[in-house]
């Protein structure tokens, strides 16, 4: 790891921005390739989204045995998860273990934020400026900036007048936040709030939940993982995913075939998918299958029938099942009605919870419907809606993220001919395969818009992207190519394809952060690729096997 310094300039083969799971694996691959590399991270440690999202109840909604790296067999074998769905602290420990095990920290510059990145055509490299106005020069740049890493902070009127404490779930303090015997208001009922609310309801004097749109959620049925610990390993069963009865050793024994199932799936997860149509079975049979999925828990609920994501009538059967569950779980019929979504299930990311609906039966929780009782402003002691003043000690903003493009736009990225990325993408991101954009040579985005990313098991998608990028860099080195960029025609065709495949998919059927609907003024386009992970990988492989078809190499 050599560092060239001339007049306060740092010159590299590669700069990686971000030290979450994408940045760590990129750095691992770069060191294997013996590149002169540095990773720049604004936080004080590794972990990315799991460094920042420390709110009570934060955990992953993908099984821990699947939400993990597969590039190292030794890492897979040695790391022991404790729960079916890992908590934020455990995932952060895992990220730190990876950084230490593969000696990655020596190449990471923490507490450093990149403010701008400009491509210098005359020199064929990128010039990055950090928050201390230091210049960093690099041939290649990898944006490992994450899909959900820029907070959405709505501009509530008179927010600064509030004299109590204000926290955002996506930037939770590292110290313990004492909510005991306090009046707390939480704004938002998306995934973060659904995890957070049952946790803090046990602690606060009173919790006011300010809801704009209700959200579908299914029980996690989380449990400690089971280990054989010296017991007989005879009759090892093969995992199909989300099986509570399996021992960890059984998953590890079959890890290669287990991972292969995920690779050949729509969501990069080994899921038990029922190949039947929800409309081809009897009402009794359909209800039994939904009930079984509900009782086993987790995101496999949406794979109860193969057509739930495409056929609106089929989808309605699943939506009605969950609506009926809400009605049966929430004792107050008015509250149950407010918590019941009226849009297709799966349109917004399906949440996974621990007693979310049941918590509304507690006497110290009040649901405030912002559709009939809009939030007007903050005042010194709390929140004012159109009907009432709510006196609060603490406000929690569970208002989500400026997804997919927010963090890229926070960096002033300028490509060839003085074109800025935020201007080029002002009407929606056009990004070839989610990997690269025309006019921005040698700049790669990991899980960028136009890739399956947030619709999949992120770590599997990350590894696929990083492997593709480093195969590409190696190809360029062997063939004496200095520059690569997506062609304008290729990215336009990919953008059109992405929009076309999303039209009939349930995910495009309502306003969500997938289309930027949660951010005022943001262009409304379906950003992640919804055509399926395995089909996407086929396309990426086809492109590279055909000499990087759709890219311009010089």
Textual characterization of the structure:
This protein is of the alpha/beta class. Helix content is 29%, strand content 17%. The strands form five sheets. Strands 1, 2, 3, 4, 5, 6, 7, 18 and 19 form a nine-stranded mixed sheet that branches. Strands 8-17-9-10-13 form a five-stranded parallel sheet, covered by helices on one side. A hairpin with a 2-residue loop joins strand 1 and strand 2 (9-17). The longest helix has 21 residues, at 458-478. It is globular and about 70 Å long.
Please sum up the structure shown.
This protein is α/β, with parallel strands linked by helices and 554 residues long. The chain has helices at 21-32, 49-52, 73-78, 88-101, 191-200, 248-253, 255-263, 283-296, 312-329, 333-338, 406-410, 421-424, 458-478, 488-503, 533-545; strands at residues 4-6, 9-17, 37-40, 108-109, 114-120, 125-130, 135-143, 165-168, 183-187, 206-211, 217-219, 351-353, 365-369, 375-379, 382-385, 389-391, 394-397, 412-414, 443-445, 484-486, 551-553.
| Cα-to-Cα separation, first versus last residue | 27 Å
Number of strands: 21
Please summarize the sheet with the most strands.
9 strands, mixed
How would you sum up the global shape? globular
Oligomer: single chain
Poorly predicted ranges: 1-7
Gyration radius, in Å: 24 Å
Structural class estimated from helices and strands: alpha/beta
Q: What is the typical, i.e. mean, pLDDT? A: 95
Report the portion of residues in β strands.
15-25%
Q: Helicity, in percent? A: 25-40%
In DSSP terms, counting alpha (H) and pi (I) runs of 4 or more, how many helices? 15
């Amino acid at each position: 790891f050599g560092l060239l310094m001339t007049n306060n300039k740092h010159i590299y083969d590669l700069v990686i921005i971000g030290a979450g799971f994408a940045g760590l694996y990129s750095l691992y691959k770069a060191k294997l390739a013996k590149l002169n590399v540095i990773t720049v991270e604004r936080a004080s440690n590794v972990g990315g989204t799991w460094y920042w999202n420390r709110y009570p109840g934060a955990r992953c909604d993908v099984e821990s045995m699947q939400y993990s790296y597969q590039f190292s067999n030794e890492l897979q074998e040695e790391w022991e998860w404790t729960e079916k769905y890992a908590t934020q602290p455990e995932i952060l420990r895992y990220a730190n273990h990876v950084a230490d095990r593969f000696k990655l920290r020596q190449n990471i510059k923490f507490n450093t934020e990149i403010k701008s990145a400009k491509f210098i055509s005359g020199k064929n490299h990128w010039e990055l400026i950090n928050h201390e106005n230091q210049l960093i020069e690099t041939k290649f740049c990898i944006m490992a900036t994450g899909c959900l890493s820029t907070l959405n902070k709505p501009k509530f009127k008179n927010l600064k007048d509030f004299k109590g404490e204000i926290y955002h779930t996506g930037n939770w303090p590292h110290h313990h936040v004492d909510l005991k015997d306090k009046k707390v208001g939480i704004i938002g009922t998306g995934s973060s709030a659904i995890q957070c609310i049952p946790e803090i309801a046990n602690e606060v004097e009173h919790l006011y939940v300010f809801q704009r749109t209700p959200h579908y959620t299914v029980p996690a049925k989380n449990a400690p993982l089971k280990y054989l610990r010296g017991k007989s390993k005879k009759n090892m069963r093969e995992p199909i995913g989300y099986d509570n009865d399996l021992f960890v050793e059984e998953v590890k024994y079959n890890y290669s075939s287990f991972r292969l199932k995920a690779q050949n799936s729509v969501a990069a997860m080994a899921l038990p998918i029922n190949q039947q149509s929800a409309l081809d079975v009897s009402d009794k049979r359909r209800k039994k299958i939904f009930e079984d999925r509900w009782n086993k828990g987790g995101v496999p609920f949406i794979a109860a029938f193969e057509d739930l994501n495409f056929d609106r009538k089929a989808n309605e059967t699943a939506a009605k099942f969950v609506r009926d569950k809400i009605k049966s779980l929430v004792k107050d019929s008015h509250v149950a009605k407010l918590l019941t979504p009226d849009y297709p299930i799966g349109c917004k990311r399906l949440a996974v919870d621990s007693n979310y609906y049941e918590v509304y039966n507690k006497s110290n929780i009040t649901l405030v419907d912002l559709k009939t009782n809009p939030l007007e402003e903050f005042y010194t002691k709390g929140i004012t809606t159109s009907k009432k003043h709510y006196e609060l000690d603490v406000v929690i903003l569970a208002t989500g993220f400026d997804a997919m493009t927010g963090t890229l736009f926070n960096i002033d990225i300028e490509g060839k001919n003085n074109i800025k990325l935020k201007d080029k993408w002002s009407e929606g991101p056009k990004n070839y395969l989610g990997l690269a954009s025309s006019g921005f040579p040698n700049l790669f985005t990991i899980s960028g818009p136009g890739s399956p990313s947030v619709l999949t098991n992120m770590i599997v998608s990350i590894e696929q992207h990083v492997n593709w990028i480093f195969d590409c860099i190696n190809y360029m080195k062997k063939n004496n190519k200095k520059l690569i960029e997506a062609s304008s025609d290729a990215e336009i065709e990919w953008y059109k394809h992405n929009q076309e495949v999303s039209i009939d998919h349930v995910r495009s059927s309502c306003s969500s952060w997938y289309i930027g609907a949660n951010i005022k003024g943001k262009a409304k386009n379906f950003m992640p690729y919804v055509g399926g992970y395995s089909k996407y990988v086929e396309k990426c492989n086809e492109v590279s096997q055909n000499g990087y078809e759709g890219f311009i190499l010089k």
